[in-house]
Specification:
The chain is mostly helical and about 450 residues long. Helix content is about 80%, strand content about 0%.
Length: about 450
Amino acid sequence: MTKPLLMTLLLLGVGLAPAAHAQNARVTAGVVAFTSGDYGRALSDLDAALADPSLLTPENVPKAYYYRAKARMARVVELAGAIQRAGAGDPHAQEELENAAKELIPRTWNDYRRAREHEHAGRWKELVAAELPQLYQQALQTATGVLHHASQPTLSREDKRAAYAEALGVLDVAIQIAPDEYLPYSLRAEAKRSLDGETDAPDTRNAHADFATAARLFGEHPPAHPDLLIAYVYYRKALIERYPHQDADAALATLAAGRKALDGEMARLRAMKDRYDRVEWGQLTQQYEDVSADLQRFELDTLFNAPGQLARALQRFEQAASANPKDYMIRVAWASLLEQAGQLDKADAVYRAATELDPSRAHAWTNLGVLRVNRAVALTQQAHAADDEGRTQALLKEAHGRLEAALPALRKAQELERCNGTALRALRSVTLALELDDEYRKYEEAETECLRATD
C-alpha cells in the first residue's frame, strides 16, 4: 500500500469514529431526558440519533427506537390529558390536540416494531410487549374521540371524510397490536360505514367484513367483563345486509345471532350479580332492556317488509304484542300483517285495541276504517256475482253495515289529521255510498282545500 493511500484511509477512519460516537451519545442523552420527564428533549435527541441508524451500535439501535416510542407515548398521554381539560369549551384546541395524538400513535407503533425487529440480546421484545397494552388502549381512546368529532353536524363533508380516514389509521394500529380483540374491528367497521356514508359511491363490503370479524372474535374471545353493547355489532351488520345488500334473510339471521349474544352476556351478568350494588344493577338491567328493544324493533321492521316471511312475522308480532301490551305501533303493524294474511276479523280487533291504547293517534283509526271499507267492497262484489237473490241481498246488507261501521273510525282519523288524504278519500266513498250528501260535500271541500294548500 502506498503511503498517500494509507494516510487517506487513516484520515477516513479518524473522521468516522467521532460521528458514530456523537450519534450513540445522542441515544444516551435521549434516554436521560426521557427518564427525567423532558419528553420534548428526548424526542429531539433520539430523532437525531436515528437520523442514520447505521452509525449506532447494535445495542443502541433498538434502545433508540424503544425510548423514542416511549417518549412519543408519554406525549400522547400528555395530549390526552390536555384534550380532557380542553373539553367542549375550546373545540379548536381539542381538534389540534387530537390531530397531534393521531399522528403520534402510528409513529409510536412503528418505533416499537422497529425496536423488536432490531432485537439484541433478547431484551427488547419483552420490553416492547409490556408497553403495547397502553398503546392499544390509547389508540382506542383516540379513535373514539375522533369518531365522535367526525359525527358533529357542523363539520363539512370533506372534514368528516378526513376525520374518518384518520380514525381508520389509528384503529389499524390497535388491530395490529391486538388482532384477536373484537372492539377495534367494531370501531373500524363503524368508521368505514360512516366514511361510506360521506361518499357518492359507497362500498359497504369492508365495513360488513369488519363487523363480521368483530362478532366472530367476540364469540371466540369474550371479554372478562360482559358487554351488552356487543349486540350493536350485530345490529349494524344487519343494517348493511338489509339496506345496501338488500338481503332480509341475512339481516334476520344476524339479528337472531345478536339476540343470542345479548342474552348470553346478560346470563353472565346475572351470574356475577353480587358484584354490583342496587343502582349499578338497575342500570345494567335498563341497558339490557334498551338494547333488547332496539333488536326487536329492527327485527319486526325487517319481518314486516320481508317477502316470504309472513308466517314468521305474524308469530313474532303476536309475541311482541303480548310482551309489550302498551306498544301502539306493534299492534298497528301486526294488524296490517293480519290483513295481508286474510285474517280480517282478527285484524279488525287488533286495530280496535290500538285505538283504545292511544285514541289520539290517527294511524289505527285510518287503517280500521279502510279495512272495513275494503271488506264492504269485497262483499258488494260477491253480491253482484251471486246467482241467488236472497244471497245477494244478504251480502249487500252486510256490506252496508261494514260501511256504517267504517264511518266513525274514518271521521275520527280525519278529525285528528285534517288533511289525512287516505281518510278523506275513504270518507268521500263511504258518504257517497250511504247517500250522506252533506257530509260528502264537506269532505270533498276539505280534500280540495288540502290539495290547494300543498300546491
